[in-house]
Amino acid sequence: MVPSISPSVKTIGFWSAVFSTLFSTAYAFGQLTEWLGWLGSEDGPENASTPLSVGDDQSQRKSILQRV
Asked: Has this prediction a pTM greater than 0.70?
């Protein structure tokens, strides 16, 4: 015999599924917009629009930090 699931557990499970779906959809949309270049970092981490860009020299990184 299988015990029935309490209503509070069902409610938590339902909302967990809803928020999981929403967040994963938002993440997938963000990844697609990034890959299409819609977020301003089209040239990758070397682009000046990317905060603390990975590929830039140290002086440019310092100037970005000073502006923030």
From this structure: no
